[in-house]
């Protein structure tokens, strides 16, 4: 998808300055800024990596997963991977 933005020369210069600070091209900077804005508005937090969690957070995450299994809130792995492949546009087997 391609969008064209109309902005003042001052705004263009500001965007170019911000992109340069981040060592990015203007299109890459705009893409990153757009994605970050969408993530903030959608309130979908990035999952923490294990080394970003306390032991207590990790244990709680495992307990929630085990409770999901006990309650039957599961998806067969073949179905889950098929859904991921569909979402990523990968139609063959991986």
Highlighted features:
94 residues, 4 helices, mainly alpha
Q: What order do the SSEs take from the amino end to the carboxyl end, as H and E?
A: HHHH
What is the β-strand count?
0
First and last CA, distance = 27 Å
Principal-axis shape equals: elongated
Mean pLDDT across every amino acid position? 86
How many domains would you count in the coordinates?
2
Number of helices: 4
Strand pairing plus helix content: what structural class? mainly alpha
Beta strand %: under 5%
The gyration radius over C-alpha positions equals: 20 Å
Poorly predicted spans:
none
Percent helix range? 55-70%
Describe the fold and architecture:
This protein has 94 residues and is mostly helical. The chain has two domains: 1-46; 49-94, no CATH class. It is built from four helices and no strands. The protein has helices spanning 9-21, 26-42, 55-70, 77-88. Helix 1 crosses helix 2. The chain is elongated and about 60 Å long. The mean pLDDT is 86.
Can you give me a brief rundown of this structure?
With 94 residues, this protein is mainly alpha-helical. Helices cover 62% and strands 0% of the residues.
Summarize the topology:
Elements: H1 9-21, H2 26-42, H3 55-70, H4 77-88
Helix pairs in contact: 1-2
